[in-house]
Design brief:
The complex is a heterodimer. By secondary structure, chain A is mainly alpha-helical. Chain A contains 15 helices and four strands. Helix content of chain A is 74%, strand content 3%. In chain A, the strands form two sheets. Chain A has a two-stranded antiparallel sheet with strand order 1-4. Chain A has a two-stranded antiparallel ribbon with strand order 2-3. In chain A, helix 4 (65-90) crosses helix 13. Chain A is globular and about 65 Å long. Chain B is mostly helical. Chain B has helices at 2-9, 14-30, 47-70, 78-95, 102-130, 134-153, 163-170, 178-195, 199-208, 210-215, 220-246, 258-268, 280-300, 307-322, 324-349; strands at 38-40, 43-45, 157-159, 172-173, 176-177, 248-250. The chains are: A mainly alpha, B mainly alpha. Chain A binds chain B through residues 94, 140, 143-147, 149-151, 153-158, 160-162, 164-165, 168, 277, 280-281, 284, 290-291, 321-327, 329-331, 333-334, 337-338, 341, and chain B through 74, 126, 130-133, 135-137, 139-148, 150-151, 155, 251, 260, 263-264, 267, 273-274, 303, 305-313, 315-316, 319-320, 323-326.
Chain lengths: 348, 350
């Protein structure tokens, strides 16, 4: 686990390198844990394993491969959202519109499929529309210097409102090809299986890791989060990158919407309320600093898995109610933010 | 003449006021009786009064939010605090033997507001002592807060039957709805405290540069505690009004999205989210714009559910009009006008 997490560290350009020629193994471990780059991610990884093991000890049938895989099956859309959000937050921005865009995507999918469109046309259309929405938001932020918070808030209102324009009731999806894609299980052997959504989400993650760790664009994203002004003085394409980041987030929200409609097989205007906060929480738990500049996509994926495993434990417990989920997530957020604060403070 | 016009146009309140007047004009055209206010049983009635009453909770929260934003902060937890305060009040009323008595209601209100106060201190602690970014510090309570509210109501919608409590939401004082009187009181209190004393300036100095103001001897930490506590308290009051209006505490839906409306009101009113400068009058106009917009959507006969699209349009319009790029364009226009009038004068002189 550790080695896969470290890999982007070597490729990540921003800031000082977390791993200097280590003197002793113990120093090296301490360096890793107190580094603002890798520390929070490693802590999250340890916490995830601890919670999963604790669940396995407490509940019968918890410690199984399928329970682990279901974390991905149930949260594939959230993984895609968190990936997009990571790009935005790395530049020091924020995107509040993702939940509403997910809902809008499910509405567009459900209503167009109902009128006889083929999924092959609907899905690309959704991805284009949401990317364009992201582009508009990005332009508003860049050209008109509207704060990201407000620009994406406006986008959120717009998307939520458009959901109601399409329909105020739930529309179910019955289009055979779409349903077939949704219910397909890909067997992994040993009675384990995943859905196509998981494959899509993992592809998105791999592409994002590559883009952020190994491309010019990725380096510019980190540089903007570190200091926009310095990036500009270095001659980096700050303007273009800042706008594209919101396009990426819009695209990811659209894709997440498609995956979400695979999951629910319906479109509903009130769906995914507050999902933007789950995505932000996942990114923060995954160790990305909200001021930008530090963080990893794989950390955000871990963040989603932590949220998912809490949800699973609450399901297994059976007697715990949905409100405990919210309180737990809030408490976890607090723990992680304070941890980040402590870790980064010691470094400076 | 031109100079006066330009001064009005460049005023920070210009675009919000224009927006408000446009909305009122649309209403008057669509519904000629819009501005009429009638007196029934000594109470004032009319569309304008309705706007004031329905807008009061947003205004109350927006006043607190303005001060928070002036310190370069933000409070996302106000909706959750409103839900908690309503839930606490209703569960106390339901648990008492005599929910209709004035004393019980007073106890419920005081306890609810005390809890809101504690939540505000918590936010202030995270922001000023631990030093977490405000958006994240309050995100914690926003996420967990609704869970806490549900815990208090045990996941139920608590319906209460208590006349004095109901009066908070739909009663009248001095001929005006109680909510409007409370809203006006809080607005006046905030304006007096921050504009008649140095408090407002100190808050703005923290917003401009917390470190510099600390070195200049401003107690930044105490000020942050004060604004977050005041904001949570105003959220608690708004929560009581909302709950009393529905005569029910709904942990999931009381004050849903109200943080966004409050932030909108503040931003429409010309206060920058970057902190350091604020306008309570602007916030008042912003809150009125939002509520008038909602009412307009009803009056014109558009399904109310689509209101959010219009909200998006208004936010975008006001933000774009207030943006530096637009201001620069206006400045260029102003220069051109000045140059032309100078040329005209020259021509007249020669």
């Amino acid at each position: 686990m550790t080695s896969t997490l470290e890999r982007p560290t070597t490729g990540a350009p921003a800031g000082r390198s977390g791993i200097r020629s280590p003197r002793r193994p113990l120093d090296r471990v301490r360096d890793l844990l107190t580094s603002p780059k890798s520390g929070p991610v490693l802590v999250t990884a340890v916490l995830f394993v601890a919670v999963f093991v604790a669940g396995g000890i407490r509940y019968k049938g918890f410690f199984s491969g399928q329970v682990f895989l279901n974390l991905f099956v149930d949260n594939s859309y959230l993984i895609v959202l968190a990936v997009g959000m990571t790009f935005v937050i790395l530049t020091g921005g924020i995107d509040l519109s993702v939940g509403a865009v997910v809902a809008l995507s499910t509405m567009i999918a459900a209503s167009l499929l109902q009128t006889g469109w083929s999924p092959g046309a609907v899905i690309p259309l959704i991805l284009v529309l949401t990317s364009v929405l992201g582009l508009l938001v990005g332009l508003m932020i860049h050209i008109f210097k509207v704060q990201p918070f407000i620009a994406t808030l406006a986008a959120m209102f717009l998307a939520r409102g458009l959901c109601y324009v399409i329909s105020k009731d739930s529309i179910s999806i019955t289009e055979p090809a779409f349903v077939a894609l949704a219910v397909t299980r890909i067997p992994l052997g040993g009675g384990l299986s995943i859905t196509p959504s998981v494959v899509i989400a993992l592809v998105v993650v791999v592409v994002a890791v590559w883009v952020l760790g190994f491309t010019r664009f990725g380096r510019t994203v980190y540089a903007i989060g570190g200091s926009e002004q310095s990036g500009m003085l270095m001659g980096l394409p700050v303007a273009r990158t800042k706008v594209i980041v919101y396009v990426v987030s819009g695209f990811c929200s659209g894709l997440a919407g498609v995956l979400f409609s695979f999951y629910t097989l319906s479109g509903y205007p009130l769906t995914a309320i507050g999902t933007e906060l789950d995505a932000i929480a996942a990114v923060v738990i995954g160790g990305t600093l909200l001021t930008g500049g530090y963080g990893f996509v794989l950390g955000s994926v871990l963040g989603v898995l932590v949220l998912g495993v809490i949800q699973t434990i609450i399901t297994f417990e059976g007697t715990l109610s949905s409100w405990w989920t919210k309180i737990f997530i809030g408490a976890l957020l607090l723990v992680f933010i304070i941890l980040q604060k402590v870790l980064t403070a010691r470094r400076r | 003449m031109n100079a006066l016009l330009l001064r009005i146009v460049s005023s920070r309140l210009f675009w919000p006021v224009v927006m408000l007047l446009v909305l009122v004009a649309i209403n008057v055209i669509a519904f000629p009786g819009f501005l009429t206010i009638t007196v029934k049983d000594g109470h004032l009635f009319g569309s304008v009064i309705d706007i004031l009453r329905n807008g009061a909770p947003t205004l109350i929260i927006a006043v607190g939010m303005t001060l928070v934003i002036a310190t370069r902060g933000i409070d996302l937890s106000v909706g959750a605090v409103a839900a908690i305060s309503g839930a606490v009040a209703c569960s106390i009323l339901l648990g008492s033997s005599d929910p209709g008595s004035f004393g019980t209601v007073a106890v419920a209100v005081v306890v609810a507001l005390l809890i809101a106060l504690v939540l505000g201190v918590w936010n202030g602690f995270l922001v000023s002592v631990i030093g977490i970014q405000p958006i994240i510090a309050t995100l914690i309570l926003m996420t967990a807060g609704r869970g806490v509210a549900m815990l208090i109501t045990e996941g139920q919608i608590l319906t209460v039957d208590s006349a004095p409590f109901k009066a908070l939401g739909s009663g009248f004082w001095f001929g005006l709805p109680v909510a409007v009187v409370i809203g006006a009181g809080i607005f006046a209190l905030a304006a007096l405290l921050t504009r008649r004393t140095a408090l407002g300036m100190l808050i703005e100095s923290v917003g401009i540069n917390p470190e510099a103001s600390r070195q200049a001897g401003v107690r930044a930490r105490g000020l942050l505690f004060t604004v977050y506590t005041f904001c949570a308290l105003s959220a608690g009051i708004a929560g009581l009004i909302l709950t009393a209006n529905q005569t029910a505490a709904d942990a999931n839906n009381t004050g849903l999205f109200i943080e966004l409306d409050a932030i909108l009101a503040v931003v429409i009113g010309g206060t920058s989210l970057a902190g350091g400068r604020y306008s309570l009058a602007g916030t008042l106009i912003g809150a009125l714009v939002i509520q008038t917009l909602v009412t307009t959507v009803y009056t014109v006969g558009i399904p109310p559910i689509i209101t959010m699209v219009f909200k998006a349009a208004v936010v975008t319009a006001v933000c774009l009009l207030q943006s530096p790029a637009t201001n620069a364009a206006f400045a260029r226009m102003r220069q051109r006008v000045a140059a032309r009038s100078a040329r005209v004068k020259e021509a007249a002189a020669s």
